[in-house]
Every structure is written in structure tokens, then in C-alpha cells.
Amino acid sequence: MILSLIIAYVLFKILEVVLPPWNFPRNIPTIPFYVSFLSSFGKYDQIDIFNLYLREKLEKYGAVKIYFASRWNILVSRPELLVEIFKNDGVFAKSGNHIKIPGSVLATYTGDNIISSTGSTWLNYRSVLKNSIQFPNLDPLTKNTAKVLNMLPDGEITDTLQRYSLQNIGDCIMGVDFEALENTNMHNQIKYIKRQIFKPFFMNFPSIEKLPIPSRLKAKKEVENFRFWFGQKIKEHTQIGAASELVQALENGVLTNKQFLDNSIITMVAGHENPLLLMQSLLFVLGSDSNLQEKCRSTPKFLDFVIYETLRMYPPLNQIINRCTTRSVQLGGEIQIPQGVYVGYMNLATGRDKNVWKDPDCFKPERWSVIDYTKAKRDAHLPAFHGRKRACLGEKYALFECKTLVHAILGKYNFELLNKIKFTPSGPISPIGMKFKFRKIEEI
Ligand code: HEM
Q1: Ligand 1 near 246 CB (within 6 A)
Q2: What whole-number distance in Å separates Cα of residue 2 and Cα of residue 154?
Q3: What is the pTM of this model?
Q4: Mutate which of 178, 264, 274, 347 to test ligand 1's pocket (most atoms within 8 Å of Cβ)?
Q5: What distance in Å separates the CA atoms of residue 21 and residue 29, rounded to the nearest whole number?
Q6: Share in percent of the chain as helix, strand, coil (round to 5)
Q7: Secondary structure class of 92 (helix, strand, coil)
Q8: CB of 398 closer than 6 A to ligand 1?
């Protein structure tokens, strides 16, 4: 009897993974559950997986059912549906990792923060951080960029760019010197934490991390230690900026200690990891085509077009599933979604949709000479920075930072991508393992 109950329970649990819940909409397709695990096997990157398993269905229906992070979700790509979701944030309410996967290493790291929260909590976090993120001090970029230009080695560059990006977010937005270009201390700590978080098996089944598994308990402890160390660093701020706003809010009781740490961490993480992804993709497209480099040198506006086109084809944040329906709702007048279902968007699918973009797989920066970038964001044709009420606060800063770096590199070097590369298998999109040859322009 007990054995039959156990078998029935196990079968039920397997079915929960294999099939979407009965009350999910029937008029959109289901992506086979195993697609979510393909990234663990290393054969395909996420652009391959998208082309093989998601593209056709998303182009035809604009939305699909997909298994991800221990649950079935609805993933949307059609711009009209996205606008409806983005405008209706009371129904499609933010519900980040701290609610979706509580007890996971990732939720322990980033907690409840300005990106993942909703309602009055979000307004509170926003009142603390908005000004420092939207109006950064851009002066330090000049010296940091000059420094990094001399550090660019002939070889793997991710670590160098990550240190640059970390130094910038500290100097320009947070008002703290992370000394990331001086030494590798903080950079190495963050790399270590990221390795603990992005374990493919636990990314697919994060709810297992709630169990007392020794390796996961250790990872959470290490994350906690880093958060404590980082909180101290924030309290040592020397300039005005997000750190001083956060410390003041903590002292005035506007934020609890946990909220202070959660928001300090997310500002540092979003503020340097996301631009880093874009920097890498930009160097990938430019390093693959010397004519493109030449055009950017001779026509400054062209670099803007290259950046927009890179955001379309290689959106740094691809799949964002962090909204949960607060009531049953009909999306686009026909997709009936029950209450309590996670709904997300897939930037890669929208950017490569042939119903939205002509020749979607061709890298054509020229197309932006007749497309209004702001309108493309508002209409959700290009949701790389979201683009509506919950739009990215750091967009202007990130674009300026990436442009400053690329412009400086183009002024000093001709560079060439030496190897054939793949993109990340899941999560944020960026090329991996790029190797470059940089040649000083006056030496050529
Ligand atoms: C290329 C770089 C970046 C990209 C592609 C990017 C993308 C995004 C996206 C797609 C969202 C919406 C997330 C959602 O729908 O849940 C977002 C929100 C946000 N981003 Fe960025 N981001 C970038 C850089 C930055 C930087 C440098 C900061 C600075 C700290 C930042 C801070 C934020 C904040 C605070 C929000 C939440 C806004 C709100 O909900 O009020 N981002 N970002």
C-alpha cells in the first residue's frame, strides 16, 4: 500500500514536469519539457535551442507554454501581447526569485529588490535608488576607459571587461571605489558566487535547493558572507550616489537591513553584469567584421545603429519570467491565463521575429536610420530594456558606458575575433570564450 502511494506520488511529480497544468490555455503550443534541460548538455547554445524548438511556434502563436525553474510558465514574444503585459502591471505583477524560488542560492543572493518587487514596496525602493541610477556621475568613465585600453590583452577579455564594468558602477552610480581595476579581489569573489549560482541542474530545479543539501547549504552560507562583506563596503562609501542613499534609507528606517542588502546587491549586479553582456556582444559583432569597424570610425552615428542592432539580435537579458497573474486574465482577447501563473517574455524571439523585423537574422545596422529607437521600445518591438513603466533605470548609463568603451577601442585599435564562438547555453546572452587580436592603429 505504502509502496503504491510512493509510486503514485513519484508518477504525479514526473507528470507535473512533463505536462503543463490542465488549466493552462489550450490555444497556444507547448514546448516539450526536455527543451529546458538541453542547455545542460553543452551541444547547443541558446540561439540554437531557440531556432530549433521555439522560433516557429512563437512566430505563429506569439506565446507558448514552457517548463522553466521548477514550474510551467507562459512565455510571450508578440509585441502587442507584451505591451498588454507591460501596461497591466497590476494583473501581471512582478514576482521575483524571492517568491518564485525562495530558498534558492539565487534568491539568497538578490533577495527582494527594485527589479523584482511590486506595489508600494517597489515605489519605496525606487524612491531610494531612482536618482542615482538615472543621473550618474559620468566623469570617472574617462579615466577608467583610458586604464582598460592599456589592459586589453591579446586573448580572453571577459575578466578585464568585468573589472572595468564593476569599477564603473562603483564610481559612477554607487559612489564607492571597488578598486576593481587595481586588484582582482572583488571580481574573484563575484565570479565564485556566480559559479555557485549557475549550476545547470539547480537552475532547472531551484526548488531542490530548499532541501538541506550540503553543497547548497555551503553555497548559501558563502553568498551570505559575501552580502555581509558587500554591505560593509557600501557603508564605507566616500561620495554621493546610490550607496549613500541606501545607507541613509537604512539609518532612517526606510529600509530594513535585508532590504538594504538586497537593493545594494542588485544595483551592483544589474549595474555591471548587464552592460558587460552588451560590451561582449558588441565586440563580437565588430571583431567579426572590419568594415563595420571602419564605418563606425567614419560615421559616429553608425555606432549607435550597431548598438541597437546588437540589442535586437543579441539582447543581453533574453528570457525574463518574473511576473505572476494576480487574477484570471485573457491575454490578447484569446489566451485565457488562470490566476497564479508565471508569465514572461523572450527578447531573442521578439528581436528575431519575421513578423516584426525584415530579414531578422541579418545584422543590418543601417535599418536603424529609418527606425525610431524610442518608438521600437515603446511598441515592444525591441524590449531589451523593457520600455514601459517598469523600464530599465540604467539604460542611458549602460548605453553611454558601452559606447564610450567601444568608441575608445575603435580609436586606438583594429581588432579581430580569432576563434569561432558559441553563445551562453542559457540565462543572459553573451558570446563565450572570445579571443581577439588587438593591433594599435598607428602600427598598421
Ligand atoms: C545593457 C545593459 C542593461 C540591460 C539590457 C538591462 C535590461 C533591463 C530590463 C529588461 C529590465 C526590466 C526587467 C523586467 O522586466 O523584470 C531592467 C530593469 C531594471 N534595470 Fe536594467 N538593464 C541594463 C543595465 C542596467 C544598469 C547599468 C542598471 C543600474 C543599476 C540597471 C538597473 C535596472 C533597474 C533598477 C531596473 C528596474 C526598474 C524598475 O522596475 O523600476 N540596469 N533592466
Answers
A1: no
A2: 63
A3: 0.95
A4: 274
A5: 13
A6: 55, 10, 30
A7: strand
A8: yes
Q: In this structure, which residue's CA is closest to atom 15 in ligand 1? A: 386
C-alpha 275 to ligand 1 mean position (Å): 10
Atom 41 in ligand 1: which residue has the minimum CA distance?
390
Q: Find the radius of gyration of the CA atoms of the chain.
A: 22
351 pocket-lining for ligand 1 (C-beta < 6 Å): no
pLDDT tens across 204-255, in order? 778 788 888 888 899 999 999 999 999 999 998 777 899 999 999 999 999 9
Query: 268 by DSSP, 3-state: which?
Result: helix
| Span between the terminal Cα atoms of the chain, in Å | 80
Going by pLDDT thresholds of 50, 70 and 90, the confidence category of residue 444 is low
Q: Show the domains of the chain with their CATH numbers.
A: 23-443 (1.10.630.10)
The sign of the torsion formed by the CA atoms of 74, 29, 346, 76 equals: negative
- Does residue 33 line the site of ligand 1, with CB under 6 A? no
Percent of the chain with pLDDT over 70: 99
